[in-house]
Write a structure and sequence with these properties.
The chain has a two-stranded antiparallel ribbon with strand order 1-2. 36% of the residues lie in helices and 13% in strands. The chain is an alpha+beta fold and 61 residues long. It has one domain. The two termini are 21 Å apart. It is built from two helices and two strands, in the order ααββ.
Amino acid sequence: MPSGMKTKPLKDDIHKYLKKHKLGRKFQKAKELFEQDINHPSLNVEILEPKHLKVYSFRLT
């Protein structure tokens, strides 16, 4: 896996969900870790199908 990644802006409905569930700070921290080092032990990263597109996701826990 690459060491750091770029992220695309979130859609409005995702912003609303994060705000409603008070996950904004947690998401921002995970996003920064993801952008710096996707192998960070606190991230739950997976590559999505089809793998050749190299689209990754991470979960907030």
